[in-house]
Amino acid sequence: MPQATQPTEETTGRAVVSLIFSLLSLTGWCPCIGSVVGIVLGTGEKSGVGRAGLVLGWIGFGLYVLGTITIVLTLLLEILVEGV
């Protein structure tokens, strides 16, 4: 009786580029742009590489937003404290 094999995933160039830009965003080379490119190119990809690019893109974008909010709040707090 023949063994059932699983179909192989096809990794596209879009998936690889998505992962590369998402990793670049996490390392700080291009935080916002890399995350957005990773999310856009990783959307709709069925391979594990594409999904990894999509997830890492969202994580990088979330960290970028949190960092920006932290910086803005810190600056506002500094202005308010010095104004008193």
Secondary structure elements and pairings:
Layout: H1 13-27, H2 31-42, H3 48-83
Radius of gyration: 19 Å
Task: Work out the count of structural domains.
Answer: 1
Average of the residue pLDDT scores = 91
The best one-word shape is rod-shaped
| Low-pLDDT regions | none
- Written as H for each helix and E for each strand, in order along the chain, the element string is HHH
Helix proportion range: over 70%
Biggest sheet overview: none
> What proportion strand?
under 5%
What class, by secondary structure content?
mainly alpha
Tally of DSSP helical segments: 3
- Cα-to-Cα separation, first versus last residue: 82 Å
Number of strands: 0
Description of the structure:
- The chain is mainly alpha-helical.
- The chain has one domain.
- The protein has 3 helices and no strands.
- It has helices at 13-27, 31-42, 48-83.
- Helix 1 runs antiparallel to helix 2, helix 1 runs parallel beside helix 3 (48-83) and helix 2 (31-42) packs antiparallel against helix 3.
- It starts with 12 loop residues before the first helix and ends with a helix.
Summarize the structure.
The chain has one domain (13-83). The chain has 3 helices and no strands.
Task: From the structure above, extract its key features.
84 residues; mainly alpha; 75% helix; single chain
